[in-house]
Design a protein that fits this description.
5-stranded mixed β-sheet, 25% strand, 60s Ribosomal Protein L30, Chain: A, binds zinc ion, 207 residues, 7 strands, alpha+beta
Amino acid sequence: MNLRIGHGWDSHAFQAGVPLRIGGIAIDHPEGLAGHSDGDVLLHALTDALLGAVAAGDIGTFFPPGDARWKNADSTIFLNLALEEIQHAGYRIVNLDATLVLAKPKITPIAGEIRERLADLLNMDTKAISIKAKTPEGLGLDHVAQAHATVLLEKVEDPEEMKSMSAVIENQRHLEDVVRNLLAEVHGTLPQRQTVKVKVFDTEDIT
Ligand SMILES: [Zn+2]
C-alpha cells in the first residue's frame, strides 16, 4: 500500500473582541484567536499536515503572511487548497488525529460538532476524525491556543474515486468564491486564486 504521513502545528494568541473559530465552527467565547485570517488554529495545523504529507510546502507557501487578500479570510480556503494539492498528487485521507492545547474554552463538549464539520469539509467519515484537547499545564501559555494535526494518506487507485473527490473540491470552491466575493465587498478588491508557488518552508505564520 502506498501511504504518506503528514504533521502540522500552529499557535495563535487569544485576543478580546475577536470571534473564536476552531475547526471551522464558531464558538461562543469572550475572546477569539488573533491572526491575519480568521485565526482558526486547527484548520491551519490541518492544512500544514496535508501539504506536508505530499511535500507541497506549507500554508505560507501559498498564502504569504500579511497578504491583504487573506485579511480575515475563512480558513476553509486554505484547507481546500491543501485538498486540491493532495488530490493532484493522487492521494486521499485515511484518517486524521488532532490535539488542541488550550486553557479555555473546554473542547470536549464541542468536539463532536468539530468532527462533523471536518467530516463535511474533508468528505470523510467522522469515525476517521479524532479531536482531542489538553490544557497547557506548566507551559505558562494560558492565553495561547495550539493545535497539532497528523494525517495519513493513501494512494487512490480507482479513477472513479478520484472523480468524486473532484466533485467535493468543486463544491468547496463554490464556497470559496462566496467568501472571496464577501471579502471583495468589504475591501473593494477581488482576490485572485493563488497560482504562483514560492518554495518557502521556514514560514513566519501570521495566517
Ligand atoms: Zn495559523
